Amino acid sequence: MGTLGFWRLAEKDPDWIAAVDPDGTEHRAGDLLARANKLVHALRGLGLEKGDGVTALVPNGVDGLVVYLAALQAGWYYTPINWHLTGPEIGYIVADAEAKAFLVHERFADLGVAGADAADLDPRRRISFGKVSGFTPFEDFTRDAPGTLPEDRSNGAAMHYTSGTTGRPKGVKRKLAGIDPDDSAELMTFLLSFFKYTPGRPVTGQHEAHLVTSPNYHTAVTQFGGSSLHMGHTLVYMDKWEAEDTLRLIEKHEITNTHMVPTHFKRLLTLPEETRAKYDTSSMKQAIHAAAPCPVPIKHQMIEWWGMCVWEYYAATEGGGTVASPEDWLAHPGTVGSKWPISELLIVDEDFNEVPAGTPGTIYMKMMGVEFEYKGDLEKTKKERLRDYFTVGDIGYLTEEGFLFLSDRKSDMIISGGANIYPAEIENEIILHPKVADVAVFGIPNEEWGEEIKAVIEPAAGVEPGAALSEEIFEFLKPRLAKMKWPRTIDYTESLPREPNGKLLKRKLRDPYWAGRSTAI
């Protein structure tokens, strides 16, 4: 211990370019450190103490990074808020997190004001980046605060809110260790060792850069971006993900690592060959992906294009998970990897009995030495537990060698005529059709069978949706899937509802079909 952690590295090498905003503005580590220090001093002036909450509604970039760096050295819980939420939803999180400060970027001014009002937040605790009505601008709020390292520093933590597919979202809250922030940050970087990350310029003199492709309010973005920074990597932020822009930024900033989702891979691969060939991606060392299983042919194509840098993992905000190196995956195509050294996996049946290798069941995980609770919801905390394991409701199986394969989310499983059908298996075949840009498969009511399979497809650019395309897709599926797994019907849409991190909001598609029914299988 004692070589990593942003605050330590920034003092050692203040001229290191620690972050690059989406508009290309570069930020020195020393300047970011001073801004974070000033924010700590100013917020302490409002009475903030260790264990308090700080929330932020900010786009990708250094403003959110400054709040993160302040909170994690002052012993506070930092909650970045999803800017796609409504004012009342934002207000709920601000209030539930017991936020003693709420920082809002002017881009989200109206939402920020509505959220602060819904939470009945004291005007003194409303701080803005830019102009937001009723908020104190950051520069004014911190003007008289010193830029020196604060005393009595102690580690804080990010407290992300779960997606809340059932009921209100809940914050995943971990106990604070009360240790030096840099030492805590160095412990965080242990995760990156699973992917063979190496320290960057302030430690080794070597250039390392992490491309932030998804919104900062996602757990993985905070974890991978923050940990990369604590290793001395430069963070390069994207405001909105675009395929060609990703390639441009990789070449321009000599990006060495990034975090993506399979949807990103699909869209990169659909770029014209001449576009793909224009950019040099040879700097990439770790192209890490998660959020959903990646169809085997798509992963093969990415490895053929970018080489042996495509890593995969399976995890949850609550902790624990698996990792698959490129070598592991090529030896076991389709796996999401084997357990982390500090994690354990358990696959159980409906009666919570452990199942043999190769048998699908509900996946339970745990991470040694890490305790969490769903803030303010002891019942939910207990409900998702089996002994000291927890589940997010995913279905999968382990091989004899300990490699995990995902089948689907339990909530997405279709039960048709008593048979369990997993949409992911169907989606992974349909997405391979060259005229399909995106696809969602789910169950809709059927009086005879209970449920029938529905597919909603986003056609590729320039492709005409309709009966002819459906026939092409059914022909395509003939040698690939048993007919019982084919969609009964196919609908088309201009764009599927996905979160910016790639997760499909399937409930938005599925729920209207079940409206007015007392049960939804």
UniProtKB/TrEMBL annotation:
Region (Disordered): 149-172
Signal sequence range: none
SUPFAM superfamilies, per database record: Acetyl-CoA synthetase-like
Keyword annotations from UniProtKB, A to Z: Ligase
Domain of life: Bacteria
Keyword Metal-binding belongs to the record: no
Positions of the AMP-dependent synthetase/ligase domain: 6-369
Alphabetized InterPro entries for the sequence: AMP-bd_C (IPR025110), AMP-bd_C_sf (IPR045851), AMP-binding_CS (IPR020845), AMP-dep_synth/lig_dom (IPR000873), ANL_N_sf (IPR042099)
Residues annotated as domain AMP-binding enzyme C-terminal: 425-503
Pfam family of the protein (one): AMP-binding
Family in the record: Belongs to the ATP-dependent AMP-binding enzyme family.
Record's protein name: Acyl-CoA synthetase
Species of origin: Actinocorallia longicatena
Phylogenetic classification of the source organism: Bacteria, Bacillati, Actinomycetota, Actinomycetes, Streptosporangiales
